[in-house]
Amino acid sequence: MDISVIIPLYNEEESLPELKAWIDRVMAENNFSYEVIFVNDGSSDSSWDVIKKLAAEDPGHVRGASFRRNYGKSPALNTGFRMARGKVVITMDADLQDSPDEIPGLYRMITEEGYDLVSGYKKKRYDPLSKTLPTKLFNATARKVSGIKNLHDFNCGLKAYRNRVVKHIEVYGDMHRYIPYLAKLAGFNKIGEKVVQHQARKYGKTKFGLDRFVNGYLDLATLWFTGKFGKKPMHFFGLLGSLMFFIGFVAIVIVGTLKIYHMHTGAPYILVTDSPYFYISLATMILGTQLFLAGFVGELVVRNSPKRNEYEIEEEINPQKASDDNDK
């Protein structure tokens, strides 16, 4: 199968028949073999009934899954990724703001140009200023933290993936905003971008509020930390804890030395316990010790994880032969 189109949705009953017909037309014009996977994220309208009707009318091309309640876009995408069978996987939103006419171009970039992932870039957007300005700031931060300098629109729902990419990443929480970063952390580094057409919303209203920008930065910090220190927590907590303990120890030695010096020279002095610097130094040493112990506990957790030695192997030569030699 050439293409799997994954469409996560929440309360989009009006747009689904039109979107399905649009996808069918594009696929027929390009002679693609395909499947359309609708993932209903606990819609409260009749979206699931519409999907079942579309599947009954075209069982060879339509598949679907429906959540019992609303979990979010990331779980819906992750479910679609597990279901996908196509050589190339395309994701798009159900609100008709993503154009299926972009599918052939995205497909060629994966199959002919060798990209692992291609993200759409809505250069010209039909969104209010209150949405576009925070989006630009968000994308600039994501580029800086992730190191993927060539992407301008991390959160664009229209993306194309090589099948093996979606089978090796897990999208959870609100991590759909950072799928290119997740792919990079999984070892898929050939990530490209394609300028795509942005359609004005035709039905309904947006399902996302301003809280997504706050949550987005928190998720980005989580990805950066787990990607850098997930398997080596002591390298972060241990280093920071040791540094804080050393600074606190040096400071408390200075406080004690100054008192001894003032006593020896007959200068006025105060009790060590009357100095605020003594308590600051002590608190710094305690915090440093706690951070070091947090790193130690983190290492114990990682050591006992069943996935501690799971690494993605790109290719292997004669693996069975090597195993047989070891048995001799």
Detailed description of the structure:
Helix 2 (47-57) links the parallel strand 2 and strand 3 (62-66). Helix 9 (234-265) runs antiparallel to helix 10. The protein is built from eleven helices and seven strands. It has a seven-stranded mixed β-sheet, with helices on both faces. The protein is of the alpha/beta class and 328 residues long. The protein folds into two domains: 3-229, Alpha-Beta Complex (Spore Coat Polysaccharide Biosynthesis Protein SpsA, Chain A); 234-303. The protein is 50% helix and 11% strand.
What is the tally of helical segments? 11
Q: What's the number of extended β-strand segments?
A: 7
Compressed to H and E, one letter per element, the order equals: EHEHEHEHEHEHHEHHHH
Q: What's the CATH architecture name of the largest domain?
A: Alpha-Beta Complex
Low-pLDDT stretches: none
Average pLDDT rating: 85
Please describe the biggest sheet, giving its number of strands, its sense, and whether it closes into a barrel: 7 strands, mixed
The residue fraction in helices comes out at 40-55%
Percentage beta strand: 5-15%
The Cα radius of gyration reads 27 Å
Rounded to the nearest angstrom, the distance between the terminal CA atoms is 43 Å
